[in-house]
Amino acid sequence: MGKPLAGKCSPEVWLGILISFILCFVLLPFDYPSNFLGVNNGVSLFENKETHPIGIVKNQSISVINQSTTDSCSGRYIYIHDDLPAKFNYDLINNCESLTGSNMPNMCPHIKNFGFGLEINNSEGVLTNKRWFSTNQFSLELIFHSKMKHYECLTNNSAQASAIYVPIYPGLEESQHLWDPNLTARDSFGEDFSKWVSSRSEWKKMWGRDHFFVSGRVAFDYRRKTDNISDWGSKLRVSPESNNMTMLTIEGSSRTNDIAIPYPTGFHPAKDSEVFQWQNRVRGQERPYLFTFVGGPRPDQPNSIRGKLFDQCQASSTCKVLNCHSSGINCEEAVTVMRVFQKSVYCLHPTGDTFTRKSAFDSILAGCIPVFFHPASAYNQYLWYLPKNYTKYSVFIPVRKAQDLKDGSIEKILLGISKDMEFAMREQVISLIPKLVYGDPRSRLETKDAFDIAVNKILERIENVRKVIREGRDPSIGFAEPDGNKFLFPEELE
After folding, report:
1. DSSP codes of every residue in 411-443
2. Are the beta carbons of 114 and 143 closer than 8 angstroms?
3. Which of 27, 213, 324, 342, by CA, is between 20 and 30 Å from 222?
4. 3-class DSSP state of 206
5. Mean pLDDT across the stretch 215-225?
6. Comparing C-alpha atoms, which of 162, 3, 158 is closest to residue 82?
7. Quick one: how far is CA 46 from the chain centroid?
8. Angle of CA points 455, 461, 465, to nearest 5°
């Protein structure tokens, strides 16, 4: 009978076994960085590999790992209603041809690349070679959803979430019915959505006040007051259920739960170095024009100042005008608009069909100092993004009526600004660029972009509602209140 196997082990082997045994007890309790284990901030890096035409993967699985004692996502978890019926989002993009009306551009190319649109390959030297796209001004809801899919603090457990994101595409749906005389067709989306979201178990936690969604159109489009066919828009934001939610949109209403965040521009950086490179580029631009106006006239609007802006610009040797209604000029092309903005010191932004303009953000991106004529064009809208003291980054020329704008007054005002003040304003404008762009969702910038700021602020807003509830107060007070001063001119300029 042979000797036991243990008898063949040398003292060195036994020592090795003893050391390994001790190391197991010493090392196992330690927490390691998430990237050490192949996990990024609590969310699995392994995603559904199925390719989607716009970069949004339906029912993408999200795996949340056990958090360490110090949870970096505490108070920041967001639950996405991925169980949302497809008619509220994916069906719209899968049938993008139906979104294109007779007087609208083809939307199908604009929903590609996470909602960025087609990549611009030849900018004729106007743009940097990478990260520029033909982004439609109404594509915010697509872009936001794409970025939310890659948010670092997603959770599959709605009870753990600090906020509930509902990925509906109300702007895309609304575009099909803007001129529809059938009010039922205009309102059915909102009615069906309100019924669905309020029936979910997550709703009863705060009766919707921890819910938010995003729209790529202005809030006015969803607040039709009457059932007259001639009235504009739908009643999406009029229902009690929708009124309990917050909407992030390119232009807010007078209600405090319609919050404006930046229009998407064509620049979607993947690295901070791309942002810094662009900032340095516009900082060094030669600007031969004192001021410029890019837009179309509004002859059917008697109080519009656009006609006078055209007249004053054409009468000045220091102004460049780009009439977007002229044959051969396509102001939807980033190259066309950015070429002019980069050559101008000041860029004029009057109101149009609504108070705000995408081109205001394009001009800031170009390092051009914006000139506003109404406080609701920026100052009372983008409170999360723009300095409260608007004189630091812009020029305000209050014009209540078109006849108030005297001939030659714009050039006179702008020439009266000192070079030192002009330089300081431009530097402030350039410093705003990182927070006004929407970065590539597949990467994460060190600087906070427009999406990051919106998420942080919506979480802060919802936490304030929770505080009100904990204190036994009524959470409806102030949540969706009308702000009668939002669209009024200030009595005195600050």
Report:
1. HHHHHTS-HHHHHHHHHHHHHHHHHHS---TTS
2. yes
3. 324
4. helix
5. 96
6. 158
7. 26
8. 140
Residues ≥6 apart with Cβ < 8 Å to 260: 248, 249, 250, 251, 252, 356, 381, 382, 383
Torsion of CA 281, 284, 285, 286, to 10 degrees: -160
E-assigned strands of 56-205?
78-80, 163-165
Please, what sign has the CA dihedral across residues 386, 387, 389, 395? negative
- Looking at residue 18, its pLDDT comes to 52
Whether the CB-CB separation of 172 and 144 falls below 8 Å is answered with no
Give the number of other Cβ atoms within 10 Å of residue 205's Cβ.
Answer: 15
pLDDT tens figures, 353-376: 899 999 999 999 999 999 999 999
Give the predicted TM-score (pTM) of the model: 0.85
C-alpha 494/C-alpha 490 separation (Å) is: 9
Give the integer Cα–Cα distance in Å for 80 and 60. Answer: 11
Length reported for the chain: 494
Average pLDDT, the chain: 86
Coil, strand, or helix at residue 83? coil
- Does residue 42 register a pLDDT over 50? no
Nearest to 39 by CA among 144, 147, 153, 157: 153
Say if CB 140 and CB 171 are below 8 A apart.
yes
Single-letter amino acid code for the residue at 452: D
Contact 438, 115 (CB under 8 A): no
298 has pLDDT over 60: yes
Compute the CA torsion angle 439, 428, 286, 447 (nearest 10 deg): -20
| The amino acid at 460 | E
Beta bridge partners of 78: 154, 163
Find, among 403, 381, 369, 380, the residue nearest to 489 by Cα: 380
Say which residues have a Cβ less than 8 Å from residue 323's Cβ, sequence separation at least 6.
Answer: 295, 296, 297, 310, 329
Q: What are 259's strand-pairing partners?
A: 248
For residue 325, the model assigns a pLDDT of: 84
Q: Specify the DSSP class assigned to residue 245.
A: S
Q: How far, in Å, CA of 460 to CA of 476, rounded?
A: 16
